[in-house]
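Supplementary Text 2. Reproducibility record for the structural model of the 104-residue chain.

All settings were left at their defaults, and a single model was retained for analysis rather than an ensemble. We include the record here because the model underlies the residue-level annotations in Supplementary Table 4.
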Amino acid sequence: LEQAAAAGLALFRTHCVACHGAPGVDPTEAGASLNPPAPGLTLARVQARSDGELKWIVSNGIRMTGMPAFGASRSEEEVWQLVAALRRLPKLSPEERHRLGKER
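Retained model, structure tokens:
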């Protein structure tokens, strides 16, 4: 699970941080201007979703929002790695926070 989360955090940094931000990392100006706004992924309402629900959202996106469907461009393994990363976000180490905040 740790390896999946680490791989997922690399994908998260590339594909998700711009819109959602991360602990200690603000979304970009473009991401912050989405309407409806992309939620912070450490929020209790997001973390309360099941792994299956999160996988579905990552795979299929959310219509009428800026959330794209990654299922067509990412492998099943990578989608699950992103779910592992989402679960890791509330308890990131200082090193993980630093990596997510590096220049995008």
